[in-house]
Amino acid sequence: MRKKGPFRLGIMGGTFNPIHQGHLVAAEVIWDEFKLDEVLFVPSGRPPHKENDEIAPPEHRWMMTVLATATNEHFSASPIEIKRKGESYTYDTILELKKIYGEDTECFFITGADAIAEISTWHKAENLPEVTKFIAASRPGYKLDMEKIHPRFRKCTYLVEVPALAISSTEIRKRIKRGQTIKYLLPEAVEKYIYKNHLYQ
């Protein structure tokens, strides 16, 4: 039962290359802990901060995200960044989502703890605290030094430890290349999709 008040939207941004159980467990834990109404998965189109050599085409990452989130009633996926031409920026995405969900929507941008440390370098970073709070999901044993985060963001950043985040997309891609099993590291539908479309081989 969710409390009354503004709609609480979790925005889980990421390359999702591929999406895996760690992403899903993190979203579920955060949905529960922060009493969110919905967690929206937003695969990035052209992430400005990543090399594109090993990134699967946007349409494949979008379809894997849809397959992975389909069975959870409070998860959904949005192609908002994939459809946008040019590079994808978090600030633009949040403004667009507020138009869709309502200007009074309370936004919580969910990302990895390592990405949060770089937040002051993001596009229009100085404006981000005005439109969203941040939830940094960390792997067990990862210590986020809050001193490394710009003071502007410390007040609006929450840290959550998620055991399943020991799984990584990078390791999954390496296992596929080596011909090793990836079963149970990601949803079965995503595993089948990867093999059917010969991704990461």
What does this structure look like?
It comes from Aerophobetes bacterium. This is Probable nicotinate-nucleotide adenylyltransferase. The protein has 9 helices and 6 strands. It has one domain (8-166): 3-Layer(aba) Sandwich (Rossmann fold), CATH 3.40.50. The mean pLDDT is 90. The radius of gyration is 16 Å and the shape is globular. A 6-stranded parallel sheet has the order 3-2-1-4-5-6, sandwiched between helices. It is α/β, with parallel strands linked by helices. Strand 1 (8-14), helix 1 and strand 2 (38-43) form a beta-alpha-beta unit.
Task: Summarize the structure in short.
The protein is of the alpha/beta class and 201 residues long. It has helices at 21-33, 58-69, 80-83, 90-101, 113-116, 128-131, 151-154, 169-178, 188-196, and strands at 8-14, 38-43, 75-77, 106-112, 133-138, 157-161. The protein has a single domain (8-166), classed as Rossmann fold (3-Layer(aba) Sandwich).
What value does the Rg take, in angstroms?
16 Å
The number of helical segments is: 9
CATH homologous superfamily placement: HUPs
Largest sheet: 6 strands, parallel
The total count of strands amounts to 6
CATH fold descriptor: Rossmann fold
Instruction: Give start-end ranges of low-pLDDT stretches.
Output: none
Strands ordered across the widest β-sheet:
3-2-1-4-5-6
